[in-house]
Specification:
The protein has 339 residues and is mostly helical. Helices cover 65% and strands 0% of the residues.
Length: 339
């Protein structure tokens, strides 16, 4: 064997050893994270080792967030999601995924979810699925969407609290793109005289900005629905007739996540126990008003997930989690029915 062959052999062994070491470190970190949370990553629907006596209504409220909480291996039988040692991890999740680092930010996000952060625009897409699918990039612009829906899908608090500014924004909707695309605020201010004083103008800019965010959700939602359509049909969520989609209400997508954000915010100390239960009870009541059982709720949640992320790994993982929640005898959905 030549010296070159020996050298290559040694390098090969070192590479294999290095890869093995990386795998060991990754597995150790993974296991350590879930040990800190107080759960077994191989066990579905972990229970809190400290027994909590929940009422039927409390368990039902926690169950509204079951798809996401089970995916995260959170406790399924207590308001608390994990052991206190995991608080640092929970705060990191709230900051990274939700932009929450304080009580004020927690309440703001929870209220956004409560009042319909995404489901209104998603339901509009589903209602018009046969018209907007298949997805073709560039077929709609913000002003084109405004002609269809106006500001009807904005947060109702904006529509009610800023009726004067909403009326001014409607009157000057043709300037929305120019104002939002202005190179600077000073450049945008040349339009201020059409809106009134600066404070009013700033509120109108916010309204334009919120509508544009809805437009982006609309465009991404159509694209993501197109990507997942065949898989959703294979799973029996609906048939070939896209008009069936108009019967799906994705409010589950908002309130299901609201439950998880409320529980994490409680764990992190951003909201009180009473505040957390208020959000959870609102979620369960909304769920009862809109769905006949957990299966219907879960189906609508997964469709909302599809509209949000498209055919990503996380979509298929949650699709599988829905099946386990419906079929596994240890599922929290088996503990308490929706009604």
């Amino acid at each position: 064997m030549s010296n070159m062959e020996k050298a290559l052999g040694i390098i090969g062994v070192l590479v294999v050893c290095f890869i093995f070491l990386i795998v060991i470190i990754f597995v150790s970190l993974f296991i350590g994270r879930w040990k800190a949370k107080g759960v077994n990553p191989n066990k579905n629907f972990p229970r809190n080792p400290i027994k909590h006596s929940l009422t039927e209504n409390q368990q039902r409220a926690i169950n509204v967030g079951a798809i996401l909480s089970a995916s995260n291996s959170d406790f399924c039988d207590s308001l608390q999601t994990s052991k206190p040692k995991a608080i640092k991890t929970i705060k990191e999740i709230l900051s990274r995924d939700w932009g929450i680092q304080s009580s004020k930010e927690a309440i703001e996000m929870l209220d956004e979810l409560k009042y319909g952060k995404h489901h209104q625009i998603f339901n509009y897409i589903l209602k018009n699925a046969s018209r907007v699918l298949p997805y073709k990039e560039g077929t709609v612009d913000p002003l084109g969407l405004y002609e269809q829906i106006g500001f009807s899908l904005l947060d109702e608090r904006i529509l009610n609290d800023y009726a004067k500014e909403v009326a001014l924004a409607k009157k000057n909707i043709h300037l929305m793109n120019d104002i939002l695309n202005a190179s600077s605020y000073e450049d945008a201010k040349k339009y201020q005289s059409l809106f009134g004083d600066e404070e009013t103008f700033l509120v109108c800019i916010k309204i334009f900005h919120l509508f544009y965010k809805q437009f982006l959700s609309y465009e991404n939602g159509i694209k993501n629905l197109d990507l997942t359509l065949s898989d959703l049909q294979k799973e029996g969520f609906f048939g070939s007739d896209l008009s069936e989609l108009k019967n799906i209400n994705t409010i589950s997508w908002d309130i299901g996540r609201m439950v998880n954000v409320a529980r994490y915010s409680y764990d992190a100390g951003y909201i009180t126990e009473n505040e957390a239960w208020e959000y959870l009870f609102f979620a369960s009541k909304t769920c009862q008003l809109n769905y006949s059982d957990w299966a219907e709720f879960g189906k609508s949640y997964i469709v909302g997930r599809a509209l949000w992320v498209g055919n990503t790994i996380s979509f298929y993982l949650m699709l599988n989690m829905l099946k386990e929640l419906k079929e596994d005898t240890n599922s929290p959905w088996k503990l308490v029915s929706l009604h």
